[in-house]
Structure formats: C-alpha cells, structure tokens
Design a protein that fits this description.
Blueprint (H helix, E strand, L loop, with lengths): L1 H10 L11 H8 L7 H19 L12 H18 L18
Helix pairs in contact: 1-2, 2-3, 3-4
Length: 104
C-alpha cells in the first residue's frame, strides 16, 4: 500500500518525502484526511496501529483489543477498494504490498 501511495505521489509531481519519515508521517502526507481521503487515511492508520501493536507488544494485546482476522481482512479490502477507485479502476495493490507487514 505504501509503495503505491509513494509512486502515485511521485507520478503527480509531488516532492520527495524527507528521508527518515515515519510510516505515520508518510500516510499523513500521501493520503491526507483533509484532501478528501479520510477513509483511506483512517484505514491506513488503523492497519499501521495494529501492525505496530502486534510487533512491539509481541502479540500480547490487551483483552478485546486484538482485531480478528476478519476485521484485518475487511480493512485491507477497504484499502484495496479505495486505492482502486482513487487510481481510476486499476487495482494497484497486490502481493506483499497489500499486507499489513508492509506498514512498519
């Protein structure tokens, strides 16, 4: 997902993102909520938070906080659909780009 957003940004003449930008900063720059991309921005941040919690808490989520596999799949599909619509019908997300592990 992040790779697609970065490529789209570059194709539209956007300035390169500063080196060392966090994933949170990249999402805010590439899919800003204020630019009519609130669903994409919110979904990307949700996936990023889940990934970080899983990685940093080593899977020990607080009771009830861990999303189900179904919830994760729904967010990924929502992002795919939003990226597809945003790109004019050509689905940009495939393989590992569409996985949560690409959002560190």
């Amino acid at each position: 997902m992040m790779g697609h957003l970065e490529r789209r940004h570059e194709q539209r003449g956007g300035a390169p993102l500063p080196k060392g930008s966090s994933e949170e900063e990249k999402i805010n720059a590439l899919a800003p909520c204020s630019a009519g991309q609130s669903q994409l921005c919110d979904s990307a941040h949700t996936l990023r938070r889940w990934y970080n919690a899983c990685r940093h808490e080593r899977g020990q989520w607080s009771v009830g906080a861990r999303p189900s596999d179904k919830e994760v799949a729904q967010v990924i599909e929502r992002i795919r659909g939003l990226l597809d619509a945003w790109s004019g019908g050509c689905s940009p997300v495939s393989g590992s780009e569409g996985s949560a592990t690409s959002l560190s």
